[in-house]
Amino acid sequence: MRSRNLATVELSAPPLSKITNPRLRLLYCVLAALAVRLLVALFVYRDLPDADKFYEAFGWEMGWAARALASGHGFSSPYFQWSGPTALEPPLYPWLLSLVFRAFGIYSLVSAFVILAINSLLSALTCVPVYFSAKESLGPRYAVRAAWVWAFYPFAIYFSAGRVWEYSLTALLFTTCFCIVQRLHRWTHPLPWIALGALYALTAHSNAAIVATLPFLLGWALWRAHGEGRRWLLNGVLCILAFLAVLTPWTVRNYRIFGQLIPVRDNIWLEMYADNFGNAPYDRTSPPTAGNRPYPASKPEEMTKYLTMGEKAYLAEKRAMSLDDLRNRPHYGFLAVKTLRRILYFWTGYWSFSAQELADQPYSIPCMCYVSAVSLLMLLGIFRLWKTNRDTLIPYLLLLGSYPIAYYLTHPLMDYRQPIEPAVVVLGLWGVLGLSRVRNKQAVAVLSQPGLQPE
User: Fold this and answer.
1) Distance of CA 367 to the CA centre of its chain
2) How far apart are CA 56 and CA 54, in angstroms?
3) What is the per-residue pLDDT across 135-146, written as a single tens digit (0 to 9) for each?
4) Is 233 a residue whose pLDDT tops 70?
């Protein structure tokens, strides 16, 4: 009798759509997101350990540095060939990957699945800050919807379950930072401000590009706190000190090794040299003086040069050559056009329709349509928030305006949008809801016409 009553209770449990507890709904959302990502990982992980390609799919530079860490060589060897200490990549994700290598074997099949599973878990957990970010800006009614959109968002699934890189880790940490910023002006106690500074520095150890957003987002929070008569100056100072305190140990390590002030990574001049005046693939806009400027991993001669000179001297040469380009062969018109093309690519996925590029990247047109559609919905969401609640929109605008600057000036890839993709999802959802409301109003207008009333 007791077992039959339990079965009756289980069968009479409410369906997911009728669960009103937001925490329980959020838990189901996280579990669903994790399940779909793990399913994708099951089809992908066997392709990662490819010795013929130097295990590049196992994280490229981050994977090679993780191999060095797991092998007892310290943070070094950012390419497949063994070399000395490096600061080409931030340390957090290679450290995480090295723990997987130590536990399950370097470049093993088990390690491949485990790291993709960890990425999937981090991406699934991002549903939580997405929920709280949307709750602050759109209200609790739409917060769970935003989390569900993230759970099945194609970019979030692909870049977590199919790629070994820092995307999922950075997205989770950075979206959490953004959630704190959205509420920070209401907190007088210094602890949340200190926590934000520390978490920002930790996130910078995953992706240094996020540092560009700190002055703008922190400045906005301080301005709001000052306007509401709350303590702001001391809290702002404590936030910055916490940021510097967490960032300093890695900076000290870099200074001891390279004798230079390198807060996180030292690759900026390599990116400037290779991508500003170099001939990008199928880019016919390069000036006549530009030559083929490959990265060390893509050309044996360049790799030999890197190994012979060492990282410090090699990057110093790239810095000198980049400055020489700017001083003696500026081609400012070319730089302006290329920067505009990067901006267009970052938000639309379009770079070129050349036959060679379409042959090498057959999915570029579908990807362009998808990215452009998402960006248009994001713009529609921005327009709707601008009309209804500008105070909640401002941090989104600061985020979207400041984060991509580093990529506008160097090397944009669709991968690099991932840290701000949760914010794009929230704004895009608001844009979709705006379209649905327009359709509903049109339907009501049509039905209200004489002769069209339902019988």
Assistant:
1) 17
2) 5
3) 999 999 899 999
4) yes
